Amino acid sequence: MFSISYTKKLSDAKQNGRYICFRERYGKEENLGVFNDKTDNANIHKFNKDLEDKKTQHPSVAVAHKMLFSMSGDEWNRSGFEPGDFQTLVRNVMKDYEQQTGKRLTWIAAEHRTPGHPHVHVLVKSVYHDKDGVPYRLKFDKDDSNFLKNSFQREKNYLRGFEVERPDKTHEYKPTRNHGKRATNDITKSLLNHVLNEMRQAEREMERERQNERDR
Known about the structure:
single chain, alpha+beta, BirA Bifunctional Protein, domain 2, five-stranded antiparallel β-sheet, two-stranded antiparallel ribbon, globular, Relaxase/Mobilisation nuclease domain-containing protein
């Protein structure tokens, strides 16, 4: 699953970065996990400072784009993925996009190993540089979204060496059309509900941050 959105407020973009990087961890084996294209120990404070760009100061312009790469716990387990694989997947997808478009991106990401729903949040600065280093405002359209989604699927298949079949294909009986539709809807709703809960939690964190700033 892949989704993309954006934020126009610098303060919201910074708070979103702090949330994805410093939210509660799931288990001792999950470390901070903040990474980018170059390191597994990316600096969110430096990234947030980089968001302060003249090209995105206008209130109608996006400051940052928010991406979510996710899969079900069942797909993760059947793929045989291990810690570190999600970072490899996301780095390869972002590199694929840069090579396809000629745009050099500035981004930071954090892996959340939520039980049953491992995923990675990526925050992308809304300014890219071309091959000559000239900066431009970054926009993502439907074609970009489809490319990133398809690249994510290709990279998963390449890393695990095979394509994971849907769970309903493993049953001995052949499900009816309605049964298959209900099962797909149930899985989709479960994933969407989890993503919505994460977004609501992020909004609550942002509101607490704003309240703390007002109280100071």
